[in-house]
Amino acid sequence: GAVVSQHPSWVICKSGTSVKIECRSLDFQATTMFWYRQFPKQSLMLMATSNEGSKATYEQGVEKDKFLINHASLTLSTLTVTSAHPEDSSFYICSARKTGLAEATEAFFGQGTRLTVV
Amino acid sequence: QKEVEQNSGPLSVPEGAIASLNCTYSDRGSQSFFWYRQYSGKSPELIMSIYSNGDKEDGRFTAQLNKASQYVSLLIRDSQPSDSATYLCAVNIWQAGTALIFGKGTTLSVSS
């Protein structure tokens, strides 16, 4: 299967600082990537859809100014958590689907990033 | 509103038994269906995908889809302790770039 690499796998930061998470599709091009957040014992909640070369589409309730998404190339999307606070501590996961296929395919997931804000 | 519903469990089965996991979805436009397995602290990994009504078998796993009733299920035969995990049902509308919508997951515990 396709490989999606996410970095870092875990990060601890101080309250008020910003954290950038990278998501790369290593062996395929991804016009669209997705960012999810998962709190303990809960399901993956879609935060935003990242579109290469255009603005991200955010889900209702997700602050676009707090969670900055940049999708500058067909293989890289970044999520920056700005002015992080303890309530932003969560497991952030990116996923991508292959570009150009007529059939809807499964999403390939990155390894996830465990963010802890202290 | 697009929703995917799963019984959160836990579902407990003895080793060697059949585990049955169920999922219902609300959007009739859903075209692709997936089962992911997630171990604690890890990202989801794909177990099965199914696109048309009926059964699809892959080793010990069988996915079943009934679009008229809007449900999809996963059967795990000869359950092993290593199958203990949370199983996430996900659906996708037939549209390029649409994210998967996940259910809350069912926790499966297989006892030896």
Characterise this structure.
The complex is a heterodimer of chains A (118) and B (112). Chain A is built from no helices and eleven strands. Chain A has strands spanning 4-7, 10-13, 19-25, 32-38, 45-51, 57-58, 67-73, 76-81, 90-96, 108-109, 113-117. In chain A, strands 2, 4, 5, 6, 9, 10 and 11 form a seven-stranded mixed sheet that branches. In chain A, strands 1-3-8-7 form a four-stranded antiparallel sheet, with no helix packed on it. The radius of gyration of chain A is 14 Å and the shape is globular. The mean pLDDT of chain A is 90. Chain B has 112 residues and is mainly β. Helices cover 0% and strands 56% of the residues of chain B. In chain B, the strands form two sheets. In chain B, strands 2, 4, 5, 9, 10 and 11 form a six-stranded mixed sheet that branches. A five-stranded antiparallel sheet of chain B has the order 1-3-8-7-6, with no helix packed on it. In chain B, strand 7 (61-66) and strand 8 form a beta hairpin. Chain B starts with a strand and ends with a strand. The relative contact order of chain B is 0.36. The mean pLDDT of chain B is 91.
Low-confidence stretches of chain B: none
- Rg over alpha carbons of chain B: 13 Å
Terminal Cα span of chain A = 37 Å
Q: Regarding quaternary structure, how should these chains be classified?
A: heterodimer
The overall pLDDT of chain A, averaged over residues, is 90
Gross morphology of chain B is globular
Helix count of chain A equals: 0
First and last CA, distance of chain B: 41 Å
Choose one word for the global shape of chain A. Answer: globular
Count every beta strand of chain B, where a strand is a DSSP E run of 2 or more residues: 11
Number of helices of chain B: 0
Order of helices and strands of chain B: EEEEEEEEEEE
Q: Strand fraction band of chain A?
A: over 45%
Range of helix content of chain B: under 10%
- The count of β-strands of chain A is 11
Q: What pair of chains forms the biggest interface?
A: A-B, 27 and 27 residues
Residue stretches of chain A low in confidence (pLDDT < 50, at least 5 long) are none
Taking all residues together, what is the mean pLDDT of chain B? 91
